[in-house]
Design goal:
The protein is built from 10 helices and 21 strands. It is elongated. The protein folds into 2 domains: 132 residues, Alpha-Beta Plaits (2-Layer Sandwich), CATH 3.30.70.2390; 225 residues, 3-Layer(aba) Sandwich (Aminopeptidase). The strands form 7 sheets. A 6-stranded mixed β-sheet has the order 3-18-17-21-19-20, with helices on one face. The protein is an alpha/beta fold and 375 residues long. Helix 3 packs across helix 4 and helix 5 crosses helix 7.
């Protein structure tokens, strides 16, 4: 995994043409295209992220968070149990609710809000996949090898059960793999299904990586799940299950709750998998333009990491109009953003100043000076 600074440099190199154009009274200002020179600015592409909700009938059976952390060379997949109990430890000011119940109460939109709040970032794309739709996508890489630890049993209607799929090593076609992904034995805890889902993701991505024709196995679309499957198949990918501990209520199946250690894992993983995040949908972060006022590019990169850590969305990265800036400053361009500017200035040890400009595509501008030192 790479840190935010490395991603920023890569994005500036790849998208250097996406410079910001400014005009005054119709007169075009000189465009600076050299990232090392004063006056250069470029929009920053955020880390590609996607949220998948897996649906069986009208029931949420699992959530998957995907990030192309390394762009074309791989990324991260995190599975989240539908029976995860969302508490105020994860999402402030919320009554405890499982993701499955949240889906019943508020649909996919509510699930997206809760998961985004958990991870601390928003998603560039979201999708709901039924078992049938998932099977169609998995079929492109079939057969999928899979070691089934336990028999999968279904009720016969007379109080008995019968084996639907026996344990052992299997070669699954896409449709059956998707059914296994959704399957839950009678009275079986969701943790067992989560383990099967985790193994299926790993096996599926493994088959994509070994395919003779990557585009055929992962599809060639530029949107949706396809770019993630291609990136994971062509590079390295880490597939993990978000950790949680079971909580039992009466004789019901357990739900799962994140303890302090689990939450620390989540925070660390989220920061690593999405170096350049966008705001969660229900908790917008200040959009920031980060300008280096010194001739040391490393100072800007350190500032980028620090700003993301304190909770902003960096939308523009570049250089101040002149180097030699001694004092770091947070500029706010509309009066409504004064509070955000002062709060950020306090966090990073800078001062806040008002420079009106209602046309800028950001809320705040941070100019890094020679005095930059994250407190």
């Amino acid at each position: 995994m790479v840190v935010a600074a490395g991603v920023a440099v890569l994005l500036l190199a790849r998208h250097g043409a996406k410079v910001i154009l400014e005009s005054t009274d119709g007169e075009l200002v000189e465009i600076v295209t050299d990232p090392t020179q004063p006056g250069f600015e470029a929009f920053v592409d955020p880390t590609p992220t996607m949220l998948l909700a897996h649906i069986e009938g009208e029931e949420l059976i699992g959530v998957t968070v995907l990030a192309q952390t390394l762009l074309e060379d791989g990324g991260q997949v995190v599975l989240v149990s539908s029976d995860l109990l969302i508490t105020s430890d994860l999402v402030p000011n919320i009554e405890p609710v499982t993701l499955a119940d949240a889906y019943q109460e508020g649909g996919f939109g509510l699930v997206e809000e809760l998961v985004a709040s958990m991870f601390g970032f928003g998603f560039l794309e979201t999708a709901e996949f039924s078992t049938e739709q998932l099977g169609g996508v998995m079929a492109r890489a079939e057969p999928i090898p899979f070691g089934l630890v336990d028999d999968l049993r279904q009720e016969t209607g007379d109080g008995e059960t019968e084996i639907w799929l026996s344990r052992g090593q299997k070669e699954l076609d896409g449709a059956v793999a998707a059914e296994v992904y959704a399957f839950l034995n009678p009275n079986e805890p969701d943790a067992n299904r989560n383990e099967r889902q985790l193994d299926l993701w790993a096996s599926w991505l493994g088959e994509i990586s070994r395919a003779d024709d990557l585009l055929s196995a992962a599809m060639s679309f530029d949107v949706g799940l396809s770019p993630y499957l291609r990136a994971f198949g062509d590079g390295s990918v880490d597939v993990v299950l978000a950790p949680a501990e079971p909580v039992f209520f009466d004789d019901e199946r357990p739900v799962y709750r994140m303890n302090e250690t689990n939450r620390a894992w989540l925070s660390e993983t989220a920061r690593r998998m999405v170096p350049l995040p966008i705001s969660p949908p229900n908790a917008p972060l200040p959009r920031v333009r980060l300008l280096n006022g010194t001739d040391d590019p490393g100072r800007r990169d350190i500032a980028l990491d620090s700003l993301i850590d304190v909770g902003v969305e960096v939308a523009v990265v570049g250089n101040a109009s002149e180097f030699g800036v001694e004092r770091s400053v947070v500029l706010y361009h509309q009066a409504v953003d004064q509070g955000s500017a002062e709060q950020l200035a306090t966090l990073i040890g800078a001062s806040a100043e008002f420079v009106e400009d209602v046309d800028l595509p950001v809320d705040l501008t941070v100019i890094v000076g020679a005095d930059w030192e994250m407190p």
